[in-house]
Amino acid sequence: AQKITQTQPGMFVQEKEAVTLDCTYDTSDPSYGLFWYKQPSSGEMIFLIYQGSYDQQNATEGRYSLNFQKARKSANLVISASQLGDSAMYFCAMKYGDMRFGAGTRLTVKP
Amino acid sequence: EAGVAQSPRYKIIEKRQSVAFWCNPISGHATLYWYQQILGQGPKLLIQFQNNGVVDDSQLPKDRFSAERLKGVDSTLKIQPAKLEDSAVYLCASSRWGPSQETQYFGPGTRLLVL
Q1: Higher-pLDDT residue of A29, B47
Q2: By the CB < 8 Å criterion, does A95 face chain B?
Q3: What's the angle, vertex CA A55, arms to CA A1 and CA A25, rounded to 5?
């Protein structure tokens, strides 16, 4: 069965510094997609970045990059140059068939 | 391009009452999803539609939850009768096709409180 694990309930980072949010997953299927979403206090899930299981290169989207280590089954999100507006819940998700989400990490950016 | 629309944004009801949520997906998106997000947890899929057909409703509590997408566009999720444990945010999402590893775009959600 698919499983997504985010081991960091909460993280703090200083403004303008980089931060890594951890995500590990478990699946026996070779084809799957990995996603990161941001959920501000307003509640909407905002898509950040996607990595396909067959993609050779790590995905990047602006200040977001995904550190994909397939053999270790990890898909960590790296946010560079943190901003105050980055404070939110961050969810890792995996899609094979249906989409399964981790429990989330609350990121707080300090000024 | 307009995003996923949901209404109402907030709803407070008493247990055993019924409630309905509405979702309008992004124009042209064939696949629509309803998720339940309990406080402190990640979203959990309730039901997935491809056009007006159900693809997956394995986690939908069918004794009290129902959903429809009659014309393959907007969708309604109903709870009848509601229980205290149904208090959650109900998120609607859509994607262009669905079965592939495709990005889902979410609406703002409906926050339900059952008293």
Answers
A1: B47
A2: yes
A3: 25
